[in-house]
Amino acid sequence: MAHCPFDFFSDGKKHNICLVGGGGKTTVMYELAAAWAACGRKVLVLTSTHILQPADGSFAADAAAVQNLWQQGRYAVIGTPELSTGKLTAPPQGLYNELQLQDDVILCEADGSKHLPCKAPAAHEPVLLPDCDMVLAVAGMDALGRPLAQACQRPQLAAELLGCSLDSVIDEQMLAALLLSEQGARKNVGARAYYIVLNKCDLLKAAQQEEIRRLLVDAGMDEHRIWFRERGE
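Given the sequence above, the corresponding structure tokens read:
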């Protein structure tokens, strides 16, 4: 179960949250969904792009199925099945509008990264829900020490943003820049609350963790909006 350190997790308010960035989004999304559901909250999980259709019975084809899952104390996943891929795309607008009046929390995967730990968004990314009130940007710490071309989705865009080559080895400063840039993970966030999830922090040495924390905080990021998440949390 996720041990989320963010203030919004236990504030009891209704939230609509989009997750963007690199590898680990789906894991974080489902951990948060399960943790909130265990607290008795009505949680709706969806995508504005593509996610795999879950095989654990959490997919709900209609509003009645969603209500049934909520009554069982579970989160509900909604979307439009793509039979050719086994994935879900965005749910029908009517279903979303109906359930939006009933849920407590919406979690939406609003970006893809092809399982790479970091990314730079293309012109059409991310696909934030218009009514979302906060954005969680995720980055995997297994990006550090690897060439941009190997560890970053859309590496050419990232190289242009960072002013480096595709062969450049990703360091803490580069990763922080991708997370903080309005052409990077912060794209289209605007006035929404912005949080950062640094995934696989068990791979970091203490000095690396302190360096990336310093870079983010010195650039104006609230330290309480950074989650140093280890695998298996």
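The chain has a mean pLDDT of 95. Try to locate this feature in the token string yourself.
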